[in-house]
Specification:
It contains 19 helices and ten strands. With 488 residues, the chain is of the alpha/beta class. The protein folds into five domains: 117 residues, Cobalt-precorrin-4 Transmethylase, domain 1; 105 residues, Methyltransferase, Cobalt-precorrin-4 Transmethylase, Domain 2, CATH 3.30.950; 75 residues, MazG-like (Helix Hairpins); 77 residues, Helix Hairpins (Orthogonal Bundle); 45 residues. The strands form two sheets. Strands 3-2-4-1-5 form a five-stranded parallel sheet, covered by helices on one side. The chain has a five-stranded mixed sheet with strand order 6-7-10-8-9, covered by helices on one side. A hairpin with a 7-residue loop joins strand 8 and strand 9.
Amino acid sequence: MSKTITIIGLGAGDIGQMPLGIYRKLTNTTFLYVRTKEHPVLKALEEEGVDYLSFDDVYEKHDQFEDVYQEIVTVLLEEATEKDIIYAVPGHPMVAERTVQLLIEEGKKGEYNISVEGGQSFIDPLFSALEIDPIEGFQFLDGLIIKQDDIQLNQHLIICQVYDQFIASNVKLTLMEILPDDYHVYIVTAVGSKEESIKKVPLFELDRDMELSNLTSVYVPPVQDDTLLYHTFSQLRSVIATLRGPNGCPWDQKQTHQTLKKFLLEEAYELLEAIDNEDDDHIIEELGDVLLQVMLHAQIGEDEGLFSIKDVISNLTEKLVRRHPHVFGTEVAQSEEEVVDIWKNAKKQEKTNETNSLLDSIPKNLPGLLKAYQIQKKAAEVGFDWDDVDPMWKKVKEEIEEFQLEIVKGIEGNSKAIEEFGDLLFAIVNVARYYKIDPEIAIAMTNNKFYRRFSYIEQEIIKRKQEFTSLTLEQLDQIWEEAKKQGL
């Protein structure tokens, strides 16, 4: 019983460009199947009396292209169980032909003999028609599944299978996310044939009143203006490398991990302020400043031959996947609490060496309140914690009393008083932790509130043409209360 399928490419042009051997096979076969009849070669074959079965009607039956391709392959495999068949596709069988790949996979199972023959790809005549050299670098993407992150704007970009307005619209919207609306692109149809057409249009017109077919591709020329690449990670990395390079900035060249530490902390706090102010523009700017610090540290690592930004990204991605087995693995998490438990278990399994203390994993340079919060949280993980808030409040009152006893003795030179005040802060942080309040966020909110109200007092004094020193505390407090009433 025969199980042979010969796959033939119809080429990129008309029948005059088809190799003689391929032409003879197509005209001498009894069982010819074609993915689509929309190709100039098939029109010529029809005139010569060649019969074939096309799968154009299958496209109307399904909403998903993968379902279309699966049905085509299923039919071909069934037909090949009793006879040798030829399956013809546009262009070259190995270029942008999903059905061919599916058939090859079936052939690997050993039940079918799948052979691929001839057919010029449209890529060669496309390069010729556009007068571009692929050695400069090019991308070949499928318009059906195009993704913004896959696009390299500094290379020649060819987007195939743009055969209707819906696909053209999706391609247009994807490109407009990263290119100006009026960036010129080329609609290329039937290259290498008598019907060849190349039309230059601004990007926003890509899907407007255009004749599109299964022979249509879109060509996007490489971006020459570096400012259009500012949003790309590769351009950012290049700028950072230039700043640190031989002809770069003297300040950037001198920086080390140690000298940059304070800037990272400052930028992080400025980002928090922008978040608190719900200022999106400011958040964008401050996120950029934090990213700058990450990039500088990574570039220093690369300059020293120790690590690069690729190592940073790879380590982070691997860790995120590893710590989310409920997303990327087989575990299940139905609640936030279950997710936290999974995360903790993953962290425990990651430990490669034992530390002297459970608390050693807490960064030493954390701000005081935040470090106190993390210390208490770590201790609570192993059961060293109260179950109720009442003893926590009792501890706060106890620490207040102990501090008051010490300050009676005087503050100057009294290290015990300082210690007792620290104990008081630590106890208050414990209460905050019980109520799931981040003490750093809480104190930041209070600081901002004080700033707003004190600024109001300053402005009112200026309006009244007075001086701070001329007003009593009671008068200042009255203005403070005005600020409170105004919601400041």
